[in-house]
């Protein structure tokens, strides 16, 4: 999966740019405890032309800075996005519970609870990857 695939996975409406909600979902999926003011601050930094959306060039520039050449393991990203019903970039317990019915994968509730490292009741993407392995 490339940076472009990552970008597209969070471009929910497929219009080629990430609006605040889409970009916020991407940030939350890869960070822990990111509140709305932090999302806005990062967005203000990334959105170079200040049009309120993050386009791919803007994303690429910032991803190089923050992610570097090393992309995280993205092979479960499509499943993660499919389960994230409210598209906020995190899997709540009820969203994660859909894992069994959607992917035919039984999930031990204890493993689910253990995967939620910071105990906020949500799984971000790295926590989800651990659960799937
Ligand atoms: Ca969009
Ligand atoms: Ca922009
Ligand atoms: Ca969610």
From TrEMBL:
The keyword Ligase does not apply. PROSITE patterns: EF_HAND_1 (PS00018), EF_HAND_2 (PS50222). Keywords: Calcium, Metal-binding, Repeat. Signal peptide: none annotated. Residues 1-33, 34-69, 113-133 form the EF-hand domain. InterPro entries: EF-hand-dom_pair, EF_Hand_1_Ca_BS, EF_hand_dom, EF_hand_pair_protein_CML-like. GO terms for molecular function: calcium ion binding. It holds the Pfam family EF-hand_7. This is EF-hand domain-containing protein. It comes from Macrostomum lignano. The lineage of its organism: Eukaryota, Metazoa, Spiralia, Lophotrochozoa, Platyhelminthes.
């Amino acid at each position: 999966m490339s940076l472009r695939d990552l970008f597209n996975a969070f471009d929910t409406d497929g219009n080629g740019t990430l609006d605040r909600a889409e970009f916020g979902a991407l940030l939350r999926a890869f960070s822990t405890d990111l509140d709305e003011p932090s999302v806005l601050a990062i967005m203000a930094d990334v959105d170079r032309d200040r049009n309120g959306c993050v386009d791919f060039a803007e994303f690429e520039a910032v991803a190089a800075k923050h992610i570097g050449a090393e992309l995280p393991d993205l092979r479960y990203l499509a499943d993660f996005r499919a389960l994230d019903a409210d598209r906020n970039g995190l899997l709540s317990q009820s969203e994660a519970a859909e894992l069994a019915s959607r992917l035919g994968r039984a999930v031990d509730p204890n493993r689910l609870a253990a995967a939620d490292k910071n105990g906020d009741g949500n799984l971000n993407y790295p926590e989800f990857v651990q659960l799937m392995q």
